[in-house]
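User: I'm new to structure prediction. If I give you an amino acid sequence, what do you actually give back? Let's try with this one:
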Amino acid sequence: MSSKAFKAAVEHYKAKISEAELVLDVYLNKSVGIGEHPDLLKPILDQVEALTEAKECLRTLEELQRKAIEDLRRDIGT
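Assistant: Good question. You get back a string of structure tokens that encode the predicted 3D arrangement of the chain. For your 78 residues, that looks like this:
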């Protein structure tokens, strides 16, 4: 993966994390911003899942980067 593509993927998931955290903050701490909402639990659960998925994807990218660096170091050393 090119460094630009990797950086874009990382930024994508960081933005998803920020978005989910913002929405959860509104739902959980600023109930005035919600208005009338008949099913409040579902959107909260959806955002928790989105946050968890984005964090896991970011961790996966970091693992891939770490492995690529280790492979490069190993290749240079041989």
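You can read the tokens as a compact description of the fold. Here is one thing that stands out. The chain has a mean pLDDT of 90.
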